[in-house]
Amino acid sequence: MQRQDIRDIVAEGRKCAYSGCGHAGTTGNERAMSARNAALKTAADYDRYPLSYAKRVLSRFTITSPIAQTLTGHGGFAQYLNRFKLKDSPYCACAPDKVQDVLHVLEECPIFGRERAETEAGTGVVVARHGFPALLDDETNRKTFLEFCERVTRRYRHVLVEILKNPEPEITETLKAFVEAIVNENVSLVISRQLLTDVGTHLSLLPDNVSQEVSHFALDVIQPRAISFEEQVSSIRQHLADIYERNQKWKEAAEVLVGIPLETGQKQYSVDYKLETYLKIARLYLEVDDPVQAEAYVNRASLLQAETTNEQLQIYYKVCYARVLDYRR
Questions:
Q1: Distance (Å, rounded) from C-alpha 246 to C-alpha 86?
Q2: Which of 122, 153, 184 is the last residue of a domain?
Q3: What is the pTM of this model?
Q4: Do residue 122 and residue 193 come from a single domain?
Q5: Residue 27 domain-assigned (yes or no)
């Protein structure tokens, strides 16, 4: 074992035991083997102090989602996602030979170099595993370090908030650039989905002209990876249909909703969601006097209406069905 390996083991708080087997049957050797086996069975970390002490310490802190991801490594890190087949590669976008785990992101990833430098300047401690004890033992340093951890995991979300502060002429192009960046394959799929969900939520708060343009752009950019963003695509399409409907563009609204893969996608939609969407499409086609298309979607809804317990949707179905029958006369 190399000297650097031993340093790493000590820094990580691990223990390494060496022993060689002696002749079996010899009393002294047997005692040595028993002692070795007992030494290897160390007590669990949580047994080294009373549970009441652990509860008291934990009660002083608020563990946010980003901090929990940092402490456990169970989050939007390429190494973790790759283990569960959610990302093709465990390597970081900064270098093809760097595994993106928690330590890489905190200690050396140049993507977060500015945040790391600010943390080191504020604490006077190098952000590295040998400096973690000093960062966490001191209350002031701990607060600064945990803020750094949160900033790293929430970096893109902070960018979105800043973009939304821009005036209307600029917000359209900056939002487009943001959407294009977050759906890039180099960004963790978990993070991309969450941020795209945030974008979809904020679209409803923007003027219709801005929201409509950004929505169409997002759908175009997402299209090659649409199967990975089904929930977000559905939300954006529903919002876009509402915009068209407000402007009495019934056909455009219907065509946008038709693009939601209610039956062919991987996501399992609820009966009520599919039923309501089919009926909405049928109603929109009826608004432009297209009973043929409307009947096709009423027929799809008929397969679901018996499965719902929502009385409003059942009434909605009967109204649409009656209107289709009126066109047959």
A1: 38
A2: 153
A3: 0.58
A4: no
A5: yes
How many residues comprise the chain? 329
Do 74 and 62 lie in one domain? The reply is yes
Contact yes or no for 239/203 (Cβ under 8 A): yes
Q: Are residues 81 and 138 in the same domain?
A: yes
Please spell the DSSP secondary structure of 272-318, one letter per residue: HHHHHHHHHHHHHHHHTT-HHHHHHHHHHHHHHHTT---HHHHHHHH
Count the neighbouring beta carbons within 10 Å of the beta carbon of residue 127: 20
Distance separating alpha carbons of residues 24 and 34, to the nearest angstrom:
12
Whole-number Å distance between alpha carbons of 60 and 58: 5
**Are 33 and 118 members of one domain?**
no
Structure tokens at 293: 């298309």
Helix (H, G, I), strand (E, B) or coil at 91: strand
H or E element at residue 256: helix 250-258
37, 50: one domain: no
Q: Give pLDDT, residue 242.
A: 94
- What CA dihedral angle connects 51, 57, 59 and 62, to 10 degrees? -130
Decide which of 201, 235, 256 is a domain's last residue. 256
Residue pLDDT, tens place only, 59-97: 666 677 777 777 777 766 777 767 766 566 788 777 778
Backbone dihedral region for residue 6 (phi beyond 0: left; psi -120 to 50: alpha; all else: beta): alpha
- Please state, in angstroms and as integers, the Cα–Cα distance from residue 46 to each residue in 14, 17, 24, 50, 176, following that order: 15, 21, 36, 8, 48
Alpha-carbon distances, residue 297 vs 158, 256, 259 (angstroms): 42, 14, 13
Residue 264, by phi and psi: left (phi above 0), alpha (psi -120 to 50) or beta?
alpha
Number of domains into which the chain is organized: 4
Interval 252-280: pLDDT, tens: 999 999 999 888 767 788 899 999 999 99
- For residue 69, what are the domain limits? 46-153
